[in-house]
Design brief:
6 helices; 98 residues; elongated
Length: 98
């Protein structure tokens, strides 16, 4: 019974994967043809979404999400930016990292 209440209250599918796919596709729509929500470079929204999705990487549901949505190319671009450590130079300029 509580599951039904949550589904109705938050307008989500009883199958959590369907809701995951819907939200992933909504994220891709919000890109509006840009590489990132932040435009040419990621912003905090991109970073937050990447963090949430990367916590699922390696799980079966993550692979299925990539197969059933169009979020994979955005995720790969974000992963590349994260691995480049593009924000590190700004921290070094502020002498936070020595």
């Amino acid at each position: 019974m509580p599951d039904i209440l949550l589904c109705c209250r938050y307008n989500i599918s009883p199958d959590p994967r369907v809701s995951l796919y819907d939200q992933a596709d909504l994220w891709v729509q919000e890109l509006n043809g840009e590489d990132f929500v932040g435009g040419e470079n990621p912003n905090l929204a991109d970073l937050g979404m990447y963090g949430a999705l990367s916590s699922m990487e390696g799980c079966k549901a993550f692979g299925e999400m990539l197969e059933n949505t169009k979020i994979g190319s955005w995720y790969d671009r974000m992963k590349g930016k994260i691995q480049e450590r593009r924000g590190e130079y700004k921290l070094m300029q502020r002498s936070i990292i020595t």
